Amino acid sequence: STRQENSRLTLAQRRSAFVQMCGVGLCLLGSPFHIRGATAYGTYDDPGTEVKLALKSHLNTLAVVEFETQYHSLADTMSRATWTRVDRFIAAASGANLHIVLTLSSYAQSLQKVGITPTRTDWKSYLSFIANRQNTVTHVLYKNDPTIALVQLWGEACFPGESDHTCPAGTSGTAADMQSFYHRSLTEWHAVAPDILVSTGGFSHLNSTNASGIPWRAIMSDAANPLCEFEVNSPGDLNGTVNMVTSYCRQIRKPWYLAAWSSCYADTGYPFYTPSDSSMAAHA
Residue 185: helix, strand or coil by DSSP? Predict the structure, then answer.
């Protein structure tokens, strides 16, 4: 009996080192944890500099997005070159007591580039590869590394029937495909890495008539999905999606997370054009 109690205590202590769900929020080591993060685009070959910038900016989390060494190359999604680079970045973050959000959207886009529909594809082998990878710097398995606060599956997923340069024709799938994909993939990650939170990634387009086919309520209310995630990439997102999602997720007693927001410093045609650092800060 004492041995069993000690085992349970050890398990509880181990899990408390990971970012966890606590009611309608996140917690770490028994205290509330609020993600204050930024995306580390283009900095993966110089993690030390990025980590210093994050600390200077009073961040606690860096999002690792589009991290492959070859842009949207399916052959590179599990390559040694890609993942040794990710290893080094995670190790640098760990050494500075920062957390990582690992976003897998580029895997979906790599599938689409070769004509494969991501939501009709079982990601089990890819998720297992990540969870069971041993970091070549820290020698810790990814699934055992509390540095990783959250794994996101596919943010900005194509809405059913979408066809453009980011969503090649025939690769967007149906609403039923989306719902099945997220449930299956969330469940598979829970099985291979139960200590690390997993979520859908942020949905965009939810305010759009064309995108009304995304079954976001069913996906967000899925018991396998801990968070409601969305993005603000347009005035419609800001004025419609935010209230729509946050209101719904209050009803189902789940926390919501703004997974991404965008602005553009150079493109005057972009909905959130910001001509200066001060205007970009105001927008943020």
Answer: helix
Helix (H, G, I), strand (E, B) or coil at 222: coil
**Six-digit token string for 281:** 């800060």
Amino acid letter, residue 73: S
Pairing mode of beta strands 25-28, 31-32: antiparallel
Per-residue tokens: 51: 């980590």
Q: Contact at 8 Å (CB) between 69 and 59?
A: no
Phi, psi of 149 (to 5 degrees): -80, -35
Which tens digits make up the pLDDT trace of 170-188? 999 999 999 999 999 999 9
Query: Measured between alpha carbons, how far is 87 from 224 in angstroms, rounded to an integer?
Result: 27
Compute the radius of gyration of the chain from its Cα atoms: 19
The low-confidence residues of the chain, meaning pLDDT below 50, are 2, 5-6, 9
Calpha distance 134→131 (Å, rounded) = 9
* 33 phi, psi to nearest 5 deg: -125, 120
Q: Are 118 and 181 within 8 A, CB to CB? A: yes
Amino acid sitting at position 195: D
Is the pTM higher than 0.90? The answer reads yes
Question: Which DSSP letter does residue 270 get?
Answer: S
Token digits for 133? 């990878």
Residues 70, 109 contacting (CB under 8 angstroms):
no
